[in-house]
Amino acid sequence: MRPYITITSIFIFIATFTLYVIYILKEDSSSLKFFPTIKTLQEPYRITDPNQRVIFTGDVHGKYTEFKDLIDNKLNGLDENTLLILLGDFMIKGPDSRKVVSYILEHKDQIKCVLGNNDILVLLAYLNPHLPLSKGRTIHSVRNPLNFTTDHSFTPQDISKISARHRQIAKEVGYVNLLALAQHCSVAIEVELELTRETLFGAHAGVLPGDFMDHGPHRHTHPLSSVKALTDMKYVDEDDWTHTSREPDTKHSIKWYKLWDEYGSLYKNVTVFYGHDSRTGLNLRKHTKGLDSGCAKGGELSAMEYKYNEKKGKYEHRLVQVDC
């Protein structure tokens, strides 16, 4: 009788364990998946062809219809001479995040992308499906952070911003597409216009003077913006550029782009394109171009197109917008 009981017990154990493994694979499969290390900065895109145009586009926020309208009707479509750069937050808020992502991945040769704070939250929501949706959670609640080339084990400071909507979009877009985005997008992009020796940077929140450059007023204390700054800053402490924030939190906090007003003379041929700041809206300054004009709130979707004028020997740019 004992051998029979032993064999039966083993069979029951194996069957129970198998069912448990199947349950885990079904309910928590994302914990078995991961994203590769995401590039903080892509290798520079060097534009030498005078027929090549460069287009920076503000926050799409899942507004696929408006995004397609901008491309097809205002920019005359995409071709081999087009480099279109999305400035982050192309997911969330609008109804068609999955369509936007699919379009990006179907046109990877023409469309490049930087990740915004909301895009990063979608990636984290996928990797951490059981993260409680409560204000009490902290960065220590995140079991599966993201890795960037300059920031390992990255988790946003305010992890409470991950919402049920981020989790829903993560599920709709799916692991395969999110993985492809992590491989295709970066946190910042550099474009070198070789014909005029101009440098264009793109980042969701912005780039501080001297970042990704060999010289600058804070090159020793602040050699490179953090992922947090590149994706989420609106203010910077003018005495400590390593301290950035969404709201003014020190007596020396200023809008980050005002540093370019002061130090722009050191970077005569540099322009920074960014989104993220719909509260300020369209903000076109000499060295910085803010293109988040509130499409998610019924404003406009904005883009800036650079085209080379051979007769004048310079790039000319124009603002293109569609109503949302």
TrEMBL record:
Superkingdom of origin: Eukaryota
Any single biological process term in GO: cellular response to phosphate starvation
Gene Ontology CC annotation, any one: vacuolar lumen
Keywords of the record: Membrane, Transmembrane, Transmembrane helix
Single Gene Ontology MF annotation: endopolyphosphatase activity
Residue intervals of the Calcineurin-like phosphoesterase domain: 53-260
Transmembrane annotation, as ranges: 6-25
One Pfam family named in its UniProt record: Metallophos
Name of the protein: Calcineurin-like phosphoesterase domain-containing protein
Source species taxonomy: Eukaryota, Fungi, Dikarya, Ascomycota, Saccharomycotina
